[in-house]
């Protein structure tokens, strides 16, 4: 994951040299995932940390996850991945597991 840089002050993700502009929510989501590598985060946990409540909209979260996935997987040498843990939530990893 050495090639992944999250610039929280400027809402920018640099992935293996590729620069991606982020929304505030995308930046906050990436912060949560990067602070908890290889840990399954439930949808409820994610919503509580980002939106400060536990009642989540699955479609809303899915859109943000999809956008982040595209950014993480866009660089040819990227080792960062965001995995779906069916029925539970998501796990961020840096080695493709």
Describe, in plain words, how this protein is organized in 3D.
A hairpin with a 3-residue loop joins β5 and β6 (89-93). The protein is built from three helices and six strands, in the order βββαβααββ. The chain starts with a strand and ends with a strand. A three-stranded antiparallel β-sheet has the order 1-2-3, with helices on one face. A three-stranded antiparallel β-sheet has the order 4-6-5. It is α+β, with helices and mostly antiparallel strands and 97 residues long. The longest helix has 16 residues, at 58-73. The radius of gyration is 13 Å and the shape is globular. α1 (24-35) packs across α3 (58-73). The model has no long low-confidence stretch (mean pLDDT 89).
Question: Helix count, per DSSP?
Answer: 3
- How far apart are the first and last residues' alpha carbons, in Å? 13 Å
Low-confidence stretches: none
By DSSP, the count of extended strands is 6
Give Rg in angstroms.
13 Å
Strand order of the largest sheet: 1-2-3
- The residue fraction in helices comes out at 25-40%
Q: What is the molecular shape?
A: globular
Strand-residue proportion: 25-35%
Query: Which structural class do you get from the secondary structure elements?
Result: alpha+beta
Mean pLDDT: 89
- Major sheet size, sense and barrel closure: 3 strands, antiparallel
Provide the succession of SSEs: EEEHEHHEE
